[in-house]
Write a structure and sequence with these properties.
Blueprint lengths: L1 E6 L7 H11 L3 E5 L10 H5 L4 E5 L7 E5 L3 E6 L12 E6 L5 E7 L9 H21 L5 E6 L23 H12 L3 E2 H5 L25 E5 L1 H4 L2 E6 L15 E5 L2
Parallel strand pairs: 1-2, 7-8
Antiparallel strand pairs: 1-12, 2-4, 3-4, 5-6, 6-7, 8-10, 9-10, 11-12
The protein binds one DNA strand through loops.
DNA sequence: ATGGTGGGGATCCCA
């Protein structure tokens, strides 16, 4: 089964890209971020007509996440636990297939800029909540994938120009340390497992010709529980959609699991 | 050092 994460930067503006991507790349499961739409305005037919079940956790204007699956989704959770006052739609999770099957979490981790400041504080607090929840999920000892836009550049090799990001919330030591604490729970970075080489990116800014100059960063990740990592066949970044008309500034990241 | 682009929705925020 092939699972992908794709920050589409506006599901209403990205209809053509989303339809083409589903038709050509045919994910079995996909998590989407930054749908920037309330649930009622998501173009459901575009997705369901292509054979997908769809669960959304939308928000007006910003954020918003979704899970698509060829097989039914059950036991859906919306929102990251740990702060009932958090109104931002950045987390959705569901089970694919039978109980004991694959648990998929789709996440849009806060950007955190400018740092320091309240947005950076929110990012770090959100990552602490995610760590606590991820630790709980691991106790189930099932194949589990935490997939999404982490807004974290884990290592200098994950940026074409790491020096340009030195003071950015995506690359500050606190953000990277929080990402390492997630990994230290026992997760595996799927793309890094299969691609130790540098130059693997998932985001290129719209500005200053970043795509044409390949001035990218790797911030979209699939973290695998040990039970999922045991089943990992391959993982990769699909760069093609970044070059399409009216693209997202992110491109899909994939894992193929023997499930 | 500056300004460069894009989505969403409201005349500015967020990335």
């Amino acid at each position: 089964m092939r699972i992908a994460t794709f920050n589409i930067n506006g599901i209403k503006a990205r209809g053509d890209v989303l339809a083409r991507w589903l038709d050509e790349s045919k994910p079995d499961v996909a998590v989407l971020q930054e749908i920037k739409s309330i649930d009622a305005n998501v173009p459901r037919a575009l997705i369901e007509d292509r054979g997908y079940h769809l669960e959304t956790h939308g928000q007006k204007g910003f954020n918003g996440v979704a899970i698509l699956s060829r097989t039914p989704l059950t036991d859906v959770r919306r929102g990251l636990p740990g702060d009932d006052g958090d109104e931002q739609a950045r987390w959705i999770e569901a089970t694919v297939g039978d109980a004991g099957g694959l648990r998929v979490c789709g996440l849009y981790l806060p950007n955190g800029n400018p740092a320091p400041g309240p947005k950076f504080d929110y990012k770090l607090a959100w990552m602490a909540r995610m760590q606590a929840h991820a630790k709980t999920l691991l106790t189930q000892e099932v194949p589990l994938v935490l997939a999404g836009d982490y807004n974290v550049i884990p290592q200098p090799d994950d940026a074409a120009r790491p020096e340009a990001w030195a003071k950015d919330a995506l690359f500050l030591p606190e953000s990277r340390a929080a990402f390492r604490r997630l990994l230290a729970l026992g997760f595996y970075d799927a793309v890094r497992l299969r691609h130790p080489e540098s130059g693997i990116y998932s985001f290129w800014d719209y500005q200053a010709g970043a795509w044409s100059r390949n001035d990218g960063i790797r911030i979209d990740h699939l973290l695998l529980s040990p039970q999922a990592a045991d089943r990992l066949r391959d993982a990769w970044v699909e760069t093609g959609p970044r070059g399409w008309d009216k693209p997202s500034d992110h491109t899909p990241v994939w894992a193929d699991l023997d499930l």
